[in-house]
Amino acid sequence: MCVHICLAANINKKVVPTIGIAVDPRPRNRSTESLQANIRQLREYRSKLILFPRKASAPKKGDSSAEEIKMATQLVGPVMPIRNTYKKEQARVISEDEKNFKAFASLHMARANARLFGIHAKRAKEAAVQDVEKK
Which stretches are transmembrane (predicted)? Predict the structure, then answer.
């Protein structure tokens, strides 16, 4: 899990390794759907987890209650299997727009427009000033 996912799930980043979760400092979530799925999975794991207190005589805030500790059993098998929700798309006919779409050209133009945005804005502003002066 990433640090920002743990923080979004309201788990302190120093507590995360102590409850059996590996922390990767490099952020990986690029979409909100995967981020929400990871947060939901982490919260579900945390809700099922039974934390035993270090000292039985003095349990701390995040530790499980005495009843939960008595009910605890060792889990054998996969803890929480990851279910991928992959939806296969139906086969369909390619439309004319899709046939005529030039991916490289559109990406090339998008990069050029992003790179030259300031120059284009400056030229448009100068052209507007010249139009006002001519009138």
Answer: none
